[in-house]
């Protein structure tokens, strides 16, 4: 079966960068949007998808204008919901609780927030519906890590080992699932900060 290019682009720098911004709809900076457009300009993507949160959606809209590729919105590509911690700076969260979360985000989800496996499940559903055409998805660091778990079989510790800066572009080569009950697989082709 033939493969296709999948580009995962983390949204540009948002207002309030450095906080735990999950479901909070932080606005992107103009510089952040421009950096995303620069990353996407020469990719030759045929499909363009973005998370519905403004920091990803507005970058997707700017990429649509710059490339002529029509944008689709998919909320399954949202960031992890940090619950009671959403919008807080890490220093404002109790240190031991935050350490437990980073060590085991499934067993120690933020209070009222989303566990790691729920994020992986929704990203997996979105990945399973991708068409086998060069695709660019403007999304979030957590969703990109979940895609690595789904497509490359990374465990949670391995996903944290990948640095995904604002406007960072992760390039993957994806082989679609070959049958019922199978999942697509991928190989990392590049990471462009």
Automatic annotation (TrEMBL):
What is an example of a Pfam family matching this protein? His_Phos_1
Task: Spell out the InterPro entries in the cross-references.
Answer: His_Pase_superF_clade-1, His_PPase_superfam
Q: Coiled-coil region(s) at which residues?
A: none
Q: Which UniProt keywords apply?
A: Plasmid
Q: What Gene3D superfamilies does this protein map onto?
A: Phosphoglycerate mutase-like
Domain of life of the native organism: Bacteria
**What name has this protein been given in UniProt?**
Histidine phosphatase family protein
**What species is given as this protein's source?**
Sphingomonas paeninsulae
């Amino acid at each position: 079966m033939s493969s296709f290019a999948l580009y995962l682009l983390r949204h540009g720098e948002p207002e309030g960068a450095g906080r735990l911004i999950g479901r909070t709809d932080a606005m992107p900076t103009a510089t952040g949007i421009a950096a995303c457009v620069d990353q996407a300009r020469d990719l030759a993507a045929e499909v363009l998808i973005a998370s519905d949160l403004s920091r990803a959606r507005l970058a997707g809209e700017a990429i649509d204008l710059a490339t002529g590729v029509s944008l689709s919105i998919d909320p399954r590509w949202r960031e992890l919901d940090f619950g009671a911690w959403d919008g807080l700076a890490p220093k404002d969260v109790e240190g031991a609780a935050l350490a437990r979360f980073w060590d085991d985000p499934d067993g120690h989800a933020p209070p009222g927030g989303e566990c790691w496996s729920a994020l992986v499940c929704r990203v997996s559903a979105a990945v399973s519906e991708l068409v086998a055409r060069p695709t660019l998805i403007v999304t979030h660091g957590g969703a990109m890590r979940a895609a690595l778990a789904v497509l490359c079989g990374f465990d949670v510790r391995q996903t944290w080992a990948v640095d995904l800066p604002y406007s960072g572009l992760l390039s993957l080569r994806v082989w679609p699932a070959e049958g019922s009950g199978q999942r697509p697989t991928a190989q990392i082709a590049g990471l462009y900060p």
